[in-house]
Each structure stands twice: as C-alpha cells, then as structure tokens.
Design a protein that fits this description.
Pfam families: SBP_bac_8. Keywords: Periplasm, Signal. This is Extracellular solute-binding protein. This protein has about 400 residues and is of the alpha/beta class. The chain folds into two domains: about 230 residues, Periplasmic binding protein-like II (D-Maltodextrin-Binding Protein, domain 2, 3-Layer(aba) Sandwich), CATH 3.40.190.10; about 140 residues, 3-Layer(aba) Sandwich (D-Maltodextrin-Binding Protein, domain 2). Strands 1, 2, 3, 4, 7, 8, 9, 10, 11, 12 and 13 form an eleven-stranded mixed β-sheet that branches. Strand 5 and strand 6 form a beta hairpin. The radius of gyration is 20 Å and the shape is globular. The N terminus is likely disordered.
Length: about 400
C-alpha cells in the first residue's frame, strides 16, 4: 500500500520511486526476470471498489481517497507500481498483476503493446462525462489510442527540463549547460535512457544541428550519435554522476554537489523546502513532454468492474483530485474543472494557486515539446547502448 505519502515532498517517501526510471529489461525476454510475485493488497470484494495500481506520485493519501470515495461512490485501494515501465508491463504480461489490479497508471508509450496482447481493454469515452473537459491538446497526446480505440486516458501531464542553482549556475536556458566544460563535475543526468537520451537528442537537434527527426523515437544511427556524445562526455568526467531515484537527485541539489541537472519538477519544490535557491529552466531547445495515462486492465472487465473503473476515471477529472494532487505534487490534471472545484471549495483550496499552476503547465506546452516515449521502436537497442554508457 502506498498511503504513507503526506503533505509536501518528504524524501523518504520517494527513495524507492523512479518515476521515469530506466527500462532495464525487455518485457518478453529478460523482462520476465523482473516479474516475481507482487506484494498484494487485499482483493477488492465489492463492485464499487477499485484496486488502482499506479505511480506513487499519483497517490493522494488516505484522507484524499476518503473524500474521493464520498464524491464518486468508488472506493480506491491504491498501490504504488514504481512506474518503471519495463517491470510494470512484464508483470501484466507474464505475472499476476492482471489478476489483482483493475486500473493502472503508467507513463505513456506502452498502450499499443499492451492492447495488441489483449492485456488492457479500451475505454468507453461516452461513460466518462468529464472527459469533455479535458484540454484538447492533452487528448491529442501520442500513444493514447490503438486501432481507433482509446486505451490511455491522459490523467497527469507535465514537461521536464533542467534544474539549476541560481547563485552557482546563473541564468540557464539551454541543455548545453549540462555539457558546458566550465561546469565540469557539477552537472548530472538521470540514470534512465527514457529521459536522458531524449534530453540529449533535443539539444543536439536544436543547438548542434544534428540530423535527428524525432528525439523520442531515434533510429539506430541517431541513437548511436546521441550515445557516443554522452559516452565521450562521461569519459571526460563532465558529469558528477548519473542519479537514480528521487532521493539521490534531491540530495545532489541539497548538498550542492551538482549545480545543474536534468530532472523532475517536484525535485525543485522539495529542494526549495530545504532552502536551496533553485529553479526550473525554460530551455530554448524545447521541453520533454510526458503524460501518466490511466489504463483499464482486461481482468477488471472479466470481474465486472468496468462501471466502477469508468466512474473512477470520471472522478479523476471532477476537480477534487486535480486540486489535491496539485497541492501535493505540483502536477496538473488537464481540466479546468480543477479551478471550478477550488472556487467552490475555497476553504480547502486556493483558486488563484490552482489557476496559476494550470497556466504554468499550459505555458510550457504552448512552446516546443518533444514527447517522451517509454517504448521507442528500438527500445532494446536503447538498453544495449545505455549499458555501454554505464560501463564506459
């Protein structure tokens, strides 16, 4: 169970979270090694109970889920899936996850693979009334559909870039700062190809005129170019480290071992709470966009929980969940219902703050965005190259 997350960003909670962590194993080959047996919640007994298996940062805590159940009529048993796409998909494909959970939340990119194998079911959008309120550009996110059917619901969105310490790094507006020899030994990237490769590809495409078509889905030649670039800089000791997991990334900033690094925006919130004057840079090359999408597991249909699953998703867009999640994580559920809910419940949420957060994310997506892809065409080659980087 993942109900231990409280208000704010306590690092202990996130020490095991790797929100867009390296997919270390293939799903149907080496990935089977990651399946194991799950630590299982109690099985949902009633048709109005849903076992929700999603990224820990999507949890809103016991009090939040109680309010959610009161408003929606759906009781939620939340379990953190770690959001490492490789093991999650493997547990759905070869493990027992589909026997236990009803609805899952996962970084976008795996929907088509899961749908083709019959592991997830399509959503009936007509049963999700609040889906009409979802921002259109969120509905247009890649990876949501397969064969004309909706398999992913864009529940949480954001765009990632660079974290910089103001009095050490000054004004940063380019990923080039990560590779700047003047900052040698004071930069870092995440130990995850699903983030670090696309950041590097975005930089090379836009600032070094590299012939890269789609940074989120590199050809073999493009991937080789990007990885050789990273390996060279690693050997030159440009990077302090490749960080892994929430706590390490936060600690690097808190101790000021690193002055500039690619990373997640909630790390900025947490570092500021520790007194670090850091900021999230606006990169001239563009952001890495991502969405955590909600998927309907096929076994939930067999167990007769389709109606409750659709009620759950509808309630995610009703406003309360978006307000609560924004307060806890600084993440946005892409609907204006959040502002409407905050306005109607100003004793619990600050309407101006909710609107400001929404405008902040909208502003990011009004610029240049390259979508993260957790399952690029050559994902196994990505894994091979990333291991070479680690060994370099």
């Amino acid at each position: 169970m993942a109900h231990s997350i409280g208000n704010g960003f306590p690092p202990g909670v996130f020490s095991q979270l790797t929100r867009r962590q390296l997919v270390q194993n293939g799903v149907f080959g080496a990935g089977a090694l990651a399946v194991g047996s799950l630590g299982l919640p109690r099985a949902a007994r009633a048709l109005d109970e849903i076992n929700f298996w999603a990224t820990g940062t999507l949890d809103i805590g016991d009090d939040g889920w109680r309010t959610f159940a009161y408003d929606s009529g759906v009781k939620v048993e939340f379990t953190d899936n770690g959001n490492d796409p490789g093991p999650v998909v493997a547990k759905l494909a070869a493990g027992n996850a589909n026997d236990i959970y009803d609805v899952a939340g996962l970084q976008g990119g795996s929907e088509k693979e899961l749908a083709r194998r019959g592991l997830i079911a399509p959503w009936d959008i007509s049963q999700i009334q609040n889906y009409a309120s979802v921002w259109q550009w969120a509905k247009d996110i890649p990876y949501l559909t397969h064969d004309g059917k909706a398999y992913g619901i864009p529940t949480v969105i954001n765009a990632d870039s660079i974290i910089a310490i103001r009095d050490k790094a000054g004004s940063v507006d380019s990923y080039g700062a990560i590779f700047d020899p003047k900052l040698k030994g004071k930069t870092a990237m995440e130990d995850a190809w699903i983030n670090s490769v696309i950041f590097t590809a975005i930089y090379l495409k836009n600032s070094e005129n590299a012939k890269i078509a789609e940074p989120g889905n590199l050809t073999a030649d493009e991937l080789g170019l990007v990885m050789e670039f990273l390996i060279k800089h690693k050997r030159d000791r440009q990077f302090r480290t490749f960080w892994n997991g929430w706590e390490q990334g936060l600690q690097l900033l808190a101790n000021q071992e690193v002055w500039v690094m690619t990373g997640w925006e909630p790390i900025v919130y947490a570092a500021r709470m520790r007194g670090v004057d850091c900021y999230y840079a606006v990169p001239r090359e563009g952001y890495e966009g991502w969405a955590n999408n909600t998927i309907l597991l096929k076994s939930a249909v067999v167990r007769g929980r389709t109606k409750a699953a659709h009620q759950l998703v509808n309630a995610l867009f009703s406003g309360f969940y978006g307000c609560k999640l924004g307060l806890l994580r600084g993440y946005v559920v892409p609907t204006d219902n959040n502002v409407a809910y905050a306005t109607a419940h100003a004793n619990a949420f600050d309407p101006a703050g909710v609107r400001k957060l929404a405008d902040h994310v909208k502003q990011k997506f009004a610029g240049k965005i390259y979508w993260q892809n957790t399952r690029p065409d050559n994902f196994q080659l990505y894994e091979t190259w990333w291991q070479r980087l680690r060994n370099a």
